[in-house]
Structure formats: C-alpha cells, structure tokens
Specification:
287 residues; 2 domains; three-stranded antiparallel sheet; 3 strands; globular
C-alpha cells in the first residue's frame, strides 16, 4: 500500500487507456500525433480503446461495416423519436443525444448483446463436445425458459426480411474466406435461423442485431460490448435527427400531433369532495 499522499492520489484512478500530461497524449501507448499521421480511422480507434491494440485493416473494415449499418431506423424507433422530442425542449444536442441513448435498454438496443450471448451459449456446448444441431436446440430451450419466446437477433416487427442482413453476412463470408475471422459465430447464427424455421410455414430471418452480433463475435468482442458498440452506432442517427429537428424548429413536440389526444379509460367525470373543515351549509343538502 502506498503511503505517499501524492502517489496515492495518482493511483486513485488507474488506467491503461490513456497517458496524458502537458504536451503529451498517448492512447494505449500510441502518441495521438502519430495516430493522426498514420490516418487511423474511427473504427480503428474504437478497437484500440476497447481492446488495447490496433486492428488489422481487414478487421477494421468489418467493424466499420457493422457500425455504419445500424446508425438509424427512423423516428418510429423510440430512441430516435425521443431524441427529436428532446431537441424541441431546449436541452441542446448533448441532452437530446443522452435522452435517446438512455432508452437503449434490454428491449430496444440490447438485442445485439443478447444475441451474442446466445451464440456464446451455443459455442460453449460445442466446446463441450455437442453437435451443432444439439447445441443450438439446447441453447434455444434454455433461452426460452429464462427469457421468453422472443429470440434476440431474429425476426423484425417492421421488415419481413431485414435488408441489412444479407450484405453484412456477405462481408463476413468474405472475411472468413480471407482468413480474417474464423466463421464460427456465422455458422451458429445460421444454424439458429434454420432451427427457428423448423416446422414453421415462414422463416424467422436474422435481423440487424443478429448479424452485427455475428460480426462482433467473430472479431472477438465480448457480449456486453456489443450493446456499447450499438450505442456508438445509433448515436450517429440520434445526432442527425436531433440536429434536423432543431433546424425544423418547433417547441415541446410530443409523440402525437396536438390535434390528437390519447384514449382515456378512467372514471367518468365526478365532483371532488369538499376539504375538511369547509362550510357545513354547503356540504350537505337541505332537509
């Protein structure tokens, strides 16, 4: 244990991420000026900051494809709608961004993390010696028992087939062929899709959360980081929509036009009781 007060203060926050002193900024040991001159991009910096090393160009390319593919899904997505409403309340762009990010929870925004956890559950069974089909069935039974019948990463309430899935899987297959990633998560996700289609008249296709979970898993990101990466991705859409809304104007814009009101299903109109100690002559009818 340090007894020197100055050293104790320095060790209060310990980090291997950044070294900073007057005139010096180093990320994971790399001077910022060198990273700038090396033309290191945003996806590469996300990898460096979260993983500790720079990715290969092919790894960075696949990560960037996942990040760019999920930036927006329109104002029908709660996070986008909330960011736009917040922008009309005078909170500024940072407040609008934070408002949208704060609703990216287990139901809206967390499916990528949950899908990757499911893939890892299948992977654990494969490592224990199970065949792929058996591992998938066992993992799905456990998933439904613990979390209900909605399988994260599959099906979409808006798109019969998510238009982002196929091109991203193509990128994964190209990376597998080039030896960039092993391909195990892609095989697991496809096997889950096949298992969900068994006995059904229509397939439940993989969605954006399922396919980006494939990419993050193939690149070695743990499941909890998948949600953080989705937040980084969706923040771009939140910023764009919040900025557009500030340009359009409007004040205190709610979820519905003001001409429309909600459905009320409470008690009918009724009189409130008089306050205790009020005029007794008014509290009782005449005899």
């Amino acid at each position: 244990m340090h007894t020197d007060p100055e050293q104790l203060a320095r060790d209060w926050w310990r980090t291997s991420i950044i070294e900073m002193s007057p005139g010096v900024i180093r990320y994971r040991g790399y001077a910022i000026e060198d990273l700038i001159r090396a033309r290191v991009g945003y996806a590469q910096m996300v990898w460096l900051m979260t993983r500790g090393e720079l990715p290969s160009p092919a790894q960075a390319d696949l990560l960037e494809a996942a990040l760019m593919s999920a930036v927006d899904h329109g104002p029908q997505a709660p996070s986008i709608a909330i960011a736009r409403m917040a922008a009309t309340c005078g909170v500024g762009l940072n407040g609008a961004l934070a408002s949208g990010l704060n609703v990216l929870g287990d139901v809206h925004g967390g499916a990528g993390e949950q899908a990757l956890a499911l893939y890892e559950s299948v992977g654990d069974r494969l490592e224990a010696g199970a065949a792929l089909g058996d591992a998938v069935r066992e993992a799905l039974v456990e998933q439904v028992a613990q979390h209900g019948k909605v399988i994260p990463g599959f099906g979409h309430r808006f798109h019969p087939v998510d238009p982002r899935t196929a091109p991203l899987l193509e990128r994964v297959d190209q990376a597998v062929a080039a030896g960039v990633v092993p391909g195990r998560h892609a095989a697991i996700a496809r096997a889950i899709e096949d298992a969900l289609a068994h006995g059904r008249p229509r397939r439940i296709p993989m969605n954006i959360d399922g396919v980006t979970a494939v990419i993050y898993g193939e690149l070695g990101f743990p499941a909890p980081l998948a949600r953080g990466l989705f937040c980084l991705s969706r923040a771009v859409g939140l910023l764009a929509h919040a900025w557009e809304q500030t340009q359009q104007g409007g004040r205190i814009k709610g979820p519905l036009p003001r001409q429309w009101t909600w459905t009320y299903d409470g008690p009918a109109s009724r009189a409130a009781p008089l306050a205790s100690g009020g005029d007794e002559r008014n509290s009782h009818p005449p005899p």
